[in-house]
Amino acid sequence: MKPLKVALLGCGVVGSQVIRLLxxxxxxxxxxxxxxxxxxxxxxxRLGRKRDVEVDPALLTTDAEAxxxxxxxxxxxxxxxxxxxxxxxxxxxxxxxxxxxxxNKALLAEDGATLHEAARAGNGDLYFEASVAGAIPxxxxxxxxxxxxHVNRVLGIVNGTTNYILDKMDSTGASFTDALEEAQTLGYAxxxxxxxxxxxxxxxxxxxLAGLAFHSRVTAADVHREGITEITATDVASAKAMGYVIKLxxxxxxxxxxxxxGVRVHPAMIPRTHPLAGxxxxxxxxxVEAESAGQLMFYGKGAGGAPTASAVLGDLVAVARNRLAGTxxxxxxxxxxxxxxxxxxxxxxxxxxxxxxxxxxxxxxxxELFAKxxxxxxxxxxxxxxxxxxxxxxxxxxxxxxxxxTLEGLRELDIVRAVAGVMRVEGDD
Length: 429
What we know:
Distance between the termini: 57 Å
Number of helices: 14
Number of strands: 18
Helix content: 25-40%
Keywords: Amino-acid biosynthesis, Methionine biosynthesis, NADP, Oxidoreductase, Sodium, Threonine biosynthesis
Family: Belongs to the homoserine dehydrogenase family.
Protein name: Homoserine dehydrogenase
Radius of gyration: 24 Å
GO molecular function: homoserine dehydrogenase activity
């Protein structure tokens, strides 16, 4: 059959692996699709740059707009990242009726609505499995396999860099700085790790997951975000002594009344008995909780050239089959139109350590303050005596606003010298 022509935007870590797989698996891909997949061109920034894969120089171009506009191009694969020029190129492709496969989580979280509307108007497919959790099949199960179910919660580790750092801090006692340097040396972290360690990458992925899970439009602006830069070796050791491990979690959850949802990314303590506690190094894992299906767990490599390219090729095969059949994949589903509620309304739990005066009545005054803000205490223990006296408290679940007010009140008590070790707790109630 006549080949389907593919334009590739970007030839970096992921793009070079896409080219490799297209070449090495050409016969298998043709059999699975029903027609050969043929590279029409590869858009790059610099023509003479050394690449990780051999590319026919005749395919290389610095004019991405012209490549996207070519009449013989059927499918566009975008792996350049960022907002622009990626957004303009994707919209241009979709408006011309081409199908698009993208791994661009930042763009989807910032302005996915524009891309979906362009796909609808141009009658083309927009697939983006590679935008979240690398090789792990996660978005298609949410969008298609669970389309007949009611998803209530998505909880997981979706950033390999931060998981590697926290895992090394836990297993070796390393400081955040030392663990980050090791991650950079091994290629798990960028020279500028801000997007990862400050939670921006995970927040973008959380927005995409929440949109699919709750059939509503969600952007990165809807996500409460905290990074891991303030986590110390002492925090990690304290959690370990209590039977917990600290992970950077993405949490998307419906409210109890089902009328809204919360999306948040922040470090949290989880019990070492929890399946997510065993997710080591740069791996990702995500729990999906649905009414009928129950708990589902997705685990695997969440980043890297080859794993991400695997997800890209899966989407490429899907959209190629659709084009041959004259059909389209599922469109964006936003019928529920739920709103993201603010973090203050989110129900969570806290762990905290209070340096207190060692004298009678301290615990009673602390408990009185908790009661004032309608926050109940699950566990409390006293450590040390005299100047080293400390109360370690874990709360029951309460709104984040109530917990924040409690913390502010504790800092104003004359019997509390310092509040430390403040960390949300997930997964064991």
